[in-house]
Amino acid sequence: MNTKHIEKIAEELRLTEKHVLATATLIEEGATVPFIARYRKEATGSLDEVAVTAIRDRLDQLGELDKRREAILKSLEERGQLTDELRENVLAAETMAVLEDIYLPYRPKRRTRATIAREKGLEPLARLIFDQGTIDPVAQAGAFVNAEKGVDSGEDALAGARDIIAEWINEDLNARARIRELFLAKGVFRTKVISGKEEDGLKYKDYFEWEEPVSTAPSHRILAMRRGEKEGFLSLRIVPPEEEALALLESLFVKGDGESSRQVRMATHDSYKRLLSISMETEIRLETRKRADEEAIRVFAENLRQLLLAPPLGQKNVLAIDPGFRTGCKVVCLDKQGKLIHTDMIYPHQSEKNSSEAEAKIVGLCEKFQIETIAIGNGTAGRETEAFVRKLGLPEKISVVMVNESGASIYSASDVAREEFPDQDVTVRGAVSIGRRLMDPLAELVKIDPKSIGVGQYQHDVDQGVLKRCLDDVVMSCVNLVGVEVNTASRQLLMYVSGLGPQIAKNIVEYRDEHGPFRSRAELKKVSKLGPKAFEQAAGFLRIRDGENLLDRSAVHPESYHLVDAMANDMRCSVLDFMQDERLRGKIDLAKYVMDSVGLPTLNDIVKELAKPGRDPREKFEAFSFTKGIEKIEDVTPGMKLPGVVTNITAFGAFVDIGVHQDGLVHVSQLSDRFVKNPGDVVKVHQKVTVTVLEVDLKRKRISLSLKKQPKET
């Protein structure tokens, strides 16, 4: 463990070194973020998942910096360039940019203009000029004329000397730091449309002639400009005020007004235009892309978390419909555990005869399978199918719910779906997915690549490795927050449980299939490859609802069972009595049970959990329906007030489904009567809202919405 890393992270995150060290040690030992945050509070000072993740990620970043540092030192040593001073500078570098600046003069280079000038023997002349003494550069240059070396005149010699000086300036640590600061503080993004691409690139029209500061450009615009450039519609530059950049460099390197200084001034201008500005632009492009990626990934992760933790319908008999016009609607019936028990097809949007047959089928299936809820996908023909179902006169106890089907088609064609339903076609799998994601969004959505769920912003443009790690963190966090019923969970859900992973999850399912339901958490130790470490990490997040031990249904970790037993014994009651009687729990003096490894944070968690063992932290499900008669964009007119569901949140606003197959946009300026910087502070994904229609653009299929109070309402 690198103590300097611990000190640095503690300072950056404003945490104690003791708690950072404990967290880092747990991570190094293989503990997961959810496990550390939930079951190791005494060691970490009750750090939450955000803080633990920040420590983990910063440790990785500093580790990468150390690897690069070692590689640079090795390269310098092998080439005989490593001095004590240089080693000290390399070891002291705290960022990758500074480290690379230190290494730049020593980095193996391709042949540059400066390299060629050195080969011609012009470095002594460059040093004479760079010193900017009282010499006459023209006169001095004459001594370096050498036709055999390609120096045909004094001007050739001066030009070569300036090339060497330009490279020195480009590699100067202070100059690079100052120009980098200028790019970040006063640089601007500047985009122009590529000539002849105006029509094809119309979606980038806002950027055909665009300029905005690097320091304030929001993530979504940076990513939009980069995508436009990548697709060949825009040219993109990052430039600071050139006169200011040149003046800054002159102040660093030009010492007077003599002839030598005039040569240095020329070299300074050349260095900036030919070397330094290009190098810095490349660096700032990478830096701003990283910044934009981080923000886009943050928004995506928060949206995904809200979607995964959407209220579940729970265990009900569900009839799910994947709608369609010409191809008909696929119908499936699922039992309370989500098991497929029937499939069918209806054609309600064709002839009157087909519509009557569809009506009879739906009514009959509802009676036969005691259907409690009908789930309808919100894609093509969704609203029309919903209207059809609502007119059937079904019992009031049967609720009809529109379900966001984003990603259902991806799932239906996936290996996971084929493994679950090898004998069913993609339409059946898609309909099952629609029904199950209503019953339990988390359990079903973990089977789909998060990028296909439709809650991201430029997700295909950001760093895919960073995105995957962040989204995996979110899925794992949500799965472990809710907890997993080990006897009914899919392999895909189990693999996100702390400490498990794909192989052990598969082994659990195979063991369950062979031996029947698990009767206790302890029985999990019999699963192949589920050793003591994996058990420690996973056990508290796995639930056994009908297990032999009452605590197996709770989030109390098996390592703490003896504490609950001790509390119950001290109260002279059973564990069941202790769980059910708030009065008994209130009498407990928790300080009595404090030990070296168990403190009050864990003891308080245990008592809270005993009050509501295994409680689902997600909100209660509430049925929702769109406005009748508003089924397509042509039905929408300005001034309407409509119910809707937030489907996606971006840096520039929130998208809301109002039931017309085209989400409307609530721009950030229309989210609230007060100023809003972060849309996620006002609305959440899957939140039910009432919006006012501001504008409808039928040609571009755009709907502008508002959540603000309108003039008539004030």
From TrEMBL:
Species per Swiss-Prot/TrEMBL record: Candidatus Brocadia carolinensis
A GO MF label: mRNA binding
Protein name, entry field: RNA-binding transcriptional accessory protein
InterPro entries hit by this protein: HHH_9, NA-bd_OB-fold, Ribos_protein_bS1-like, RNaseH-like_sf, RuvA_2-like, S1_domain, S1_Tex, Tex-like_central_region
Pfam families: HHH_3 (PF12836), HHH_9 (PF17674), S1 (PF00575), Tex_central_region (PF22706), Tex_N (PF09371), Tex_YqgF (PF16921)
CDD domains per UniProt: S1_Tex
Any one GO cellular component localisation term in the record: cytoplasm
Annotated Gene3D superfamilies: Nucleic acid-binding proteins, RuvA domain 2-like, Tex N-terminal region-like, Tex RuvX-like domain-like, YqgF/RNase H-like domain
Source organism, top-level taxon: Bacteria
GO biological process assignments: nucleobase-containing compound metabolic process; translation
